[in-house]
C-alpha cells in the first residue's frame, strides 16, 4: 500500500479538497486497493467538522463529493504511517518538520512540488477570501494530484 496524507492549517479548505480530488483520481484509475488517502490540519480548531461549505460547493461543481470528510489534527504517528506527508504551504511544512521524527523528514513535501507547471510553490489559504480563491485552489490541487499519481506510479507501482 502507498499512503498519502494531505495537510493544511485547518483541514477544512485545502487539504480536504486535495484528499477528495486525489481520492476521485485513484478511484477512476482503479487503484483503490493500492493507495490510501487521508488529510489533517496542523491546527485542531476544526476537529470533527466537515469541510468549509465553499470548498464543498467548488468540489461539487467539478463533480467531486467531499462532504463526508471530517477534520482532524496531525499526530506524531502520522509520519511513520504515511509515505507522503504533503503540506499546502511553507507554514504547514515548518509546523510538520517541527514535530516530525528525524527518520521521516524526507516524507514531508510541498504538494505543489508535483505540479511545476503551476509556477508557484504554495497553495494559498482561501479561507478569508471569496469563491474565486476556492476555484483557483481547486485548479492547482487538480494539477498536483495528477503529478502526485505519476510520482507514485514511478516510485511505487511500476515495479510491480
Ligand atoms: P485550510 O484553511 O487550512 O485550507 O483548511 C483554513 C481554515 C480555517 C482556518 C485557517 C485556514 N482558521 O483559522 O480557522
Model description:
Helices cover 41% and strands 13% of the residues. It is of the alpha/beta class and 160 residues long. A four-stranded parallel sheet has the order 2-1-3-4. Helix 1 packs across helix 5 and helix 2 (53-61) crosses helix 5. The longest helix is centred in the C-terminal third of the chain and has 27 residues, at 131-157. It is globular and about 40 Å long. The relative contact order is 0.21. 4-nitrophenyl phosphate (4NP) binds next to loops.
For this structure, the CATH topology is Rossmann fold
Question: Could you give the distance between the termini?
Answer: 12 Å
CATH architecture label name: 3-Layer(aba) Sandwich
- Beta strand count: 4
The ligands bound in this entry are: 4-nitrophenyl phosphate
The CATH class, by name, is: Alpha Beta
Q: What is the mean predicted local confidence, pLDDT? A: 97
Which regions contain 5 or more consecutive residues with pLDDT less than 50? none
The helicity comes to: 40-55%
Major sheet details: 4 strands, parallel
Task: Please describe the topology of this protein.
Elements (H helix, E strand, L loop, with lengths): L1 E7 L5 H15 L6 E7 L11 H9 L16 H4 L2 E4 L2 H10 L8 E3 L20 H27 L3
Parallel strand pairs: 1-2, 1-3, 3-4
Helix pairs in contact: 1-5, 2-5
4-nitrophenyl phosphate (4NP) binds next to loops.
Overview features:
160 residues; alpha/beta; Rossmann fold; four-stranded parallel sheet; 5 helices; binds 4-nitrophenyl phosphate
Quick overview:
The protein has 160 residues and is of the alpha/beta class.
Amino acid at each position: 500500500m502507498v499512503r498519502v496524507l494531505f495537510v493544511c492549517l485547518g483541514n477544512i479548505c485545502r487539504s480536504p479538497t486535495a484528499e477528495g480530488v486525489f481520492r476521485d483520481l485513484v478511484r477512476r484509475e482503479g487503484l483503490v486497493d493500492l493507495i490510501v488517502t487521508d488529510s489533517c490540519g496542523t491546527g485542531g480548531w476544526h476537529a470533527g467538522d466537515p469541510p468549509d461549505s465553499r470548498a464543498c460547493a467548488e468540489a461539487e461543481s467539478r463533480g467531486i463529493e467531499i462532504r463526508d470528510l471530517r477534520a482532524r489534527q496531525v499526530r506524531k504517528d502520522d509520519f511513520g504511517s504515511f509515505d507522503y506527508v504533503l503540506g499546502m504551504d511553507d507554514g504547514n511544512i515548518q509546523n510538520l518538520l517541527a514535530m516530525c521524527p528525524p527518520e521521516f523528514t524526507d516524507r514531508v513535501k510541498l504538494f505543489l512540488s508535483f505540479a511545476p507547471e503551476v509556477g508557484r510553490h504554495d497553495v494559498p489559504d482561501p479561507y478569508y477570501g471569496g469563491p474565486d480563491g476556492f476555484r483557483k485552489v481547486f485548479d492547482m490541487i487538480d494539477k498536483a494530484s495528477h503529478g502526485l499519481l505519476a510520482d507514485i506510479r514511478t516510485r511505487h507501482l511500476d515495479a510491480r
